[in-house]
Design a protein that fits this description.
The chain is an alpha+beta fold. It has 29 helices and 28 strands. Strands 21, 22, 23, 24, 25, 26, 27 and 28 form an 8-stranded mixed β-sheet that branches.
């Protein structure tokens, strides 16, 4: 393991350096994925808001009933206008029913009628009936024809009218007047009492050239199941990746209306229990908005919205965004993964091959330089590319977001424009009430007696509205007193017959309210006989019975306040107020206007704003029973482009936003919140945005290209400036290694490489001189000269105190004669190498090798002081014996013979210097003096002490104070001392 670790350790840093760009690229890849995740999350939030807005606006059953009734009427129109279907109308009706009334639609009664001959409306036929009881077809036809006659003001015999009225009361309840139902509620769900239970009724009529040719009556029970059906229909078809629902937050019979997928989620059920707790619920009511980023419920991300007037909460859930899917679709990330896998494979291959074969690749300097330079450049370029990518994406998203906000703001101006115009109607109405004629009761009575042709009345009805900028159009202007004296004028934008029903009701309500107020103020003489007819009284009682609210309170509550009604195809707004004289309400003033009176004015302003943009198309449609009709006369090409999107909106009944990147257009389709029945459609080209993005991308790409080229050029220039002298130096060193000193490294530069070249040339000159010296002096002399840098100083002779050590191998002559030459040479080489290391360890130096003998000197230098030299010499001698034991142990293990040595140590003064002759020009350093001879003599005496063959000069023994451990050598008591027993180096000497 240690050997493997030693091989792997030098590879750690290169491996990390090689992996660094991959780590950086992976980090950048994660940044790109995070940006893509945030973008998809933002799109999911926008989609959730649209879905929640649709759910919050489509939960009422009456809205669904009205929409489905329009669709069914449109299907009937298609069926009646195709001749082939007349052969089997009931079957065709059933097919249309399956298309419109899905399984979510509750149990209902339906009657479908047809006028085979539009010129003879009395020939009405009941072609389809779906009811829970036996009913008379004739009576149903009479009831429907009575509604049609009232709506189209067709002549009708009084006896038939009375009979039809009784039939209608029998089917639809006594509180519903056929005239009111005909004029006010055609195509609009109306609450009725049918068979002692509350129901919804819708009737509608197909008319062409003011002649009827078909229609239907639909009755649906109004109960909790109906409410639930409305929510189920409001959910619509599940769009891909969405799960919708309504969650009950108040007690009631209608429970949760949820997708089964949500119901099975235990995390969702846990969240519901927590949400329904008072603390979370009331906190949600305070914010009244869905969480900005949704709630994470395991596999789902849930968004919700409080519906203020509903006992339910709108929910929409999306599958939790999966990073793995984002990774699989990201080409950038896939490229990073490929390079990462490829690089890891190469690194593993190199490591595995090196560990198994012990062959590691040699990477040339040029490749290493290129790799590290490319690493540095790639990191910067990668950061630049990712930054540029993020900038382009953010710029694109920002431009599209700003465009969408601009378009939405302009569409919102339609609703704001309606509110502004309503305020202008109200201001004009207030100016009207301040007219001097309203200060004089006699003038008002005179005005009423004069009728519609009174010039003063005509002035009042036009002055304050037509003089507004821009002018305002009224559908009805009327003044009424308590005696049912009134004067009224109708505008040209609405049929008087269509408005007559609602006018009669409010006229009767105004008269009734004035009379009740006058009676309460104690002026009964002003009342006289009740001027209201029976029909007028029925209208008032019908309202009071249905709303459980007195007419006088209604008129007071909505006094000087906008009231909205649907009259046929028109959406009508009413404003009324009372005129006081002496604290008594004597007169009532009413004005009516329809959406069509000003919708074109509002839409025209928005249309002109979009016309200023050359890249946009604006269309406004009115949603009618027969489909969507354009309000403006525009080109057919524009209508063809927007018509499919309008039809899609009709199917989904929700706002629609589409960003078509392929065709580079953004489409906005939404129903106006203030102009009832008006659908706004905008299509804006995004060519300019994509051109801007393309231009920015080209500039950024150009900058990156210039940066890349500059980096490559700079890398080549730097490589030439750095690698060329390095390679020259490498080649020169290789030649020197092979003994060629005729090398000259000429680098004519003033930088560091030039200085290196000069130093190298000086080194070559020194090597040449050294080579010349080596032919005439020994290696030791050469080292001395090299260290001193002074030939004359090196040649000086000096005296000094030293300890000399002489060691010899026992019986070496016999070994040479009995053993092969290779074994003898290996023995000497190993012996000299190990013993020289021991001598050097204790600050001695080998003076020379003489045959099998070693002559060493321990002298005073910067590491030693005079007193430590003898001790170190003796310790070196002991260590040499210990080292010999290790050598012999290894030799015995290798089946080789062992050998022994002897060591002699002597102290004294010697002469050290350089000696030579003039003839051969050969010189050498030598150590001369008696200590050298004495040490050789003592070494020869070591044969007498084979147990520990170290013989020491008595003077040396005194200096190291080892007399207690040593004894005089027998026969040589005054010359030599030896150890009485073997010692080790760790023992104290």
């Amino acid at each position: 393991m240690t050997r493997i670790s030693q091989k792997l350790l030098p590879l750690v840093i290169p491996t990390l350096i090689a992996l660094l760009p991959l780590l950086i690229l992976n980090f950048l890849g994660k940044i790109v994925l995070e940006r893509e995740y945030e973008r998809q999350l933002t799109n999911q939030q926008d989609e959730a808001r649209q879905s929640l807005e649709s759910l919050a606006g489509n939960w009422r059953f009456e809205d669904q009933m009205e929409r489905i009734s329009r669709q069914f009427l449109h299907k009937l129109d298609e069926m009646f206008t195709v001749p082939e279907t007349s052969l089997n109308l009931p079957l065709s009706v059933r097919l249309k029913l399956r298309e419109c009334f899905s399984h979510h639609f509750p149990d209902h009664q339906l009657w479908v009628f047809q006028y085979p001959d539009p010129d003879n409306p009395s020939k009405l036929q009941l072609i389809y009936s779906k009811t829970g009881k036996n009913v008379s077809q004739k009576s149903l036809c009479m009831a429907f024809h009575h509604l049609t006659s009232n709506y189209l003001s067709l002549p009708e015999m009084s006896s038939e009218s009375r009979t039809a009225k009784k039939i209608s009361e029998n089917y639809f309840g006594e509180m519903v007047q056929p005239s009111t139902l005909a004029h006010l509620q055609m195509g609009v769900p109306t609450r009725i009492i049918n068979q002692n239970r509350q129901c919804w009724l819708v009737w509608s009529l197909l008319v062409k050239n003011e002649k009827p040719y078909g229609g239907f009556i639909l009755v649906v029970p109004d109960n909790f199941q109906t409410v639930r059906s409305g929510m189920e229909i409001g959910l619509g078809k599940a769009e891909p990746g969405q799960t919708k629902g309504y969650l009950r937050i108040h007690s009631g019979k209608v429970g949760d209306v949820l997708d089964p997928i949500l119901q099975k989620s235990h995390l969702f059920r846990r969240w519901v229990r927590k949400f329904r707790s008072a603390k979370v619920f009331f906190r949600t009511l305070e914010t009244n908005a869905e969480p900005s980023k949704g709630i994470n419920l395991g596999k789902f991300r849930l968004f919700y919205r409080i519906i203020p007037d509903s006992p339910h909460l709108a929910l929409v859930a999306f599958p939790e965004l999966n990073l793995s899917k984002i990774k699989s679709k990201s080409i950038f990330y896939q490229v990073i993964q490929f390079f990462s896998l490829f690089s890891f494979s190469i690194i593993l291959f190199v490591l595995g091959r090196g560990l198994m074969l012990n062959v590691w690749p040699e990477i040339p300097l040029l490749m290493r330089f290129t790799w590290f330079y490319a690493l540095a450049v790639s990191v910067s370029l990668s950061l630049g590319v990712v930054g540029a990518f993020a900038y382009i994406q953010e710029t694109k998203a920002s431009l599209i977001r700003n465009l969408r906000q601009e378009i939405v703001s302009k569409l919102d101006s339609v609703d704001i424009g309606k509110e502004s115009i309503q305020d202008r109607y109200k201001n004009a109405f207030h100016k009207l009430l301040k007219d001097p004629v309203f200060k004089d009761p006699l003038a008002l009575e005179e005005l009423n007696r004069g009728g519609n042709k009174n010039p003063e009345f005509l002035r009042l009805s036009t002055q304050y509205f037509q003089c507004a900028t821009p002018s305002l159009t009224l559908s009805l202007f009327a003044i009424v007193d308590s005696q049912n004296n009134f004067v009224a004028t109708f505008g040209n934008r609405i049929n008087q017959n269509e408005l007559e029903g609602i006018w009669n009701f409010f006229r009767s309500a105004m008269v009734s309210s004035l009379r009740e107020r006058i009676a309460n103020k104690g002026a009964p003489k002003m009342l006289g006989k009740n001027p209201l007819s029976d029909d007028d009284e029925i209208l008032v009682k019908t309202y009071e019975g249905a709303s459980n609210n007195p007419t006088s309170e209604m008129m007071e509550e909505y006094r000087d306040w906008f009231s909205f009604f649907v009259v046929g195809k028109n959406h009508v707004t009413k404003l009324h107020d009372f005129i006081f004289f002496n604290g008594i309400e004597r007169f009532g003033v009413m004005i009516f206007w329809t959406t069509r009176d000003f919708e074109r004015q509002v839409l025209l302003k928005v249309f002109e704003e979009f016309q200023k943009r050359q890249d946009s198309i604006f269309m406004a449609y009115r949603n009618t029973e027969t489909g969507f009709e354009p309000i403006f006369n525009t080109s057919n090409s524009h209508d063809l482009m927007l018509r499919p999107l309008i039809e899609k909106l009709a199917r989904s009944d929700s706002n629609y936003i589409q960003n078509d990147e392929e065709n580079k257009v953004i489409s906005f389709i939404r129903a106006s919140r203030r102009l009832n029945g008006v659908v706004l459609a905008v299509q804006v080209k995004t060519d300019e945005i994509y051109r801007t993005i393309k231009t920015k991308s080209l500039w950024i790409g150009l900058f990156l290209l210039i940066g890349t080229i500059s980096a490559i050029s700079l890398g080549i220039l730097t490589g030439n400036r750095v690698l060329t002298p390095v390679n020259q130096l490498k080649e020169a060193l290789t030649k020197i290694k092979h003994g060629d000193l005729e090398v000259c490294l000429k680098i004519d530069r003033s930088d560091e490489f030039g200085k290196v070249g000069d130093s190298f040339d000086l080194m070559i000159d020194g090597l040449k001189k050294r080579k010349r010296f080596s032919t005439v002096i020994s290696q030791k002399a050469l080292e001395t000269i090299t260290k001193s840098h002074d030939m004359q100083a090196a040649q000086r002779v000096r005296r000094t105190q030293v300890v000399t050590l002489v060691s010899d191998i026992r019986n070496f002559t016999t070994i040479c004669e009995s053993q092969p030459v290779e074994i003898v040479i290996n023995l000497l080489n190993k012996h000299f190498d190990e013993m020289a290391k021991v001598i050097k360890k204790f600050d001695g130096r080998v003076d020379k090798f003489i045959g099998d003998a070693i002559q060493a000197v321990f002298e005073l230098d910067e590491k030693n002081n005079l007193s430590s030299i003898p001790e170190k010499a003796l310790m070196a001698a002991i260590e040499m014996l210990l080292q010999l034991e290790k050598i012999n142990a290894q030799r015995l293990a290798d089946n080789l013979f062992s050998y022994s040595i002897g060591i002699g140590l002597s102290k004294g003064e010697v002469i050290i210097g350089m000696y030579g002759d003039e003839v051969s020009k050969r010189c050498d350093f030598s150590v001369l003096g008696s200590p050298m001879k004495n040490a050789a003599h003592l070494e020869s005496l070591s044969k007498k002490v084979p147990w520990f063959p170290i013989v020491v000069d008595p003077n040396l023994a005194i200096d190291v104070d080892i007399r207690t451990r040593m004894i005089p050598l027998k026969g040589f008591e005054g010359e030599a001392m030896v150890f009485s027993e073997p010692v080790v180096l760790t023992e104290k000497i």
